[in-house]
Design a protein that fits this description.
The protein has 178 residues and is of the alpha+beta class. 29% of the residues lie in helices and 36% in strands. It has one domain: Gcn5-related N-acetyltransferase (GNAT) (Aminopeptidase, 3-Layer(aba) Sandwich). Strands 1-2-3-4-5-6-8-7 form an 8-stranded mixed sheet, sandwiched between helices. The chain is globular. The two termini are 25 Å apart.
Length: 178
C-alpha cells in the first residue's frame, strides 16, 4: 500500500490515479493551457488513456498520482514517473496542473517535492529527470525550487507547429542511495 503524501502548507496531497480519473485527465491534457507545455502534442482519448493504465501503470512502468486539494478533495492535476528503470534506479518525471484556478499558486512545486519523496523513499530511485521547454520559464523555476538541477540544453530538439524548440534537461538525485 502506498503511503500518503501530503503538504499541509500548500494544501495538497497525492493519491493514486484510478480509472475514475480518466475523463478528467483526458480533458485536462487536451486543454490548450496544458497541451502547449508538452512535447507530445497529439490529442488524448479515453481509449488511449485506458491503454496507458493497462500497459504502463498496471505493469509498474509508470506511477501516476492525482494532485488533490486537501480542503475539499478536489482533483487539481497529475504527477507521474514513467520509463521506470529499476536496474539503474531512475525514471522520468512529469506534471500538469489541470484546474486553471490552481495554477501559479506553488502547487506544482509542492507536488514535485512530494513526488520526489515518493521516488527517493518508497520507490528507491536514485535519479529522477525531466525535460521541459526552455522557454517555459515558470515551469523551470518551479522544478528548481523542488530540487531539480539543470543538466543541459538540447538546442532545437523538437519541432512543434513548424517551429524548433529548445529543451532543458533537469534532474534530481537522491543523496541517500548507494
Amino acid at each position: 500500500m502506498m503511503q500518503e503524501y501530503r503538504d499541509l502548507s500548500a494544501g495538497i496531497y497525492l493519491r493514486p490515479m484510478t480509472y475514475e480519473d480518466i475523463d478528467r485527465i483526458v480533458a485536462w491534457r487536451n486543454s490548450d493551457a496544458v497541451r502547449r507545455n508538452f512535447i507530445y502534442q497529439e490529442p488524448f482519448t479515453r481509449e488511449g488513456h485506458e491503454n496507458w493504465i493497462r500497459t504502463k501503470v498496471e505493469t509498474g512502468q509508470v506511477v501516476q498520482m492525482i494532485i488533490c486539494d486537501a480542503a475539499g478533495d478536489r482533483p487539481l492535476g497529475s504527477v507521474y514517473i514513467r520509463d521506470i528503470d529499476r536496474q539503474h534506479k531512475k525514471a522520468e518525471y512529469g506534471i500538469f496542473i489541470g484546474q486553471e484556478d490552481a495554477r501559479g499558486r506553488g502547487i506544482g512545486t509542492a507536488a514535485a517535492k512530494l513526488m520526489l519523496q515518493y521516488c527517493f523513499g518508497e520507490a528507491g530511485l536514485h535519479r529522477v529527470y525531466l525535460r521541459a521547454f526552455a522557454d517555459n520559464i515558470q515551469a523551470v523555476r518551479s522544478y528548481e525550487k523542488a530540487g531539480f538541477v539543470r543538466e543541459g540544453l538540447l538546442r532545437e530538439d523538437v519541432c512543434i507547429d513548424g517551429r524548433y524548440r529548445d529543451i532543458v534537461w533537469m534532474a534530481a538525485l537522491n543523496p541517500d542511495t548507494p
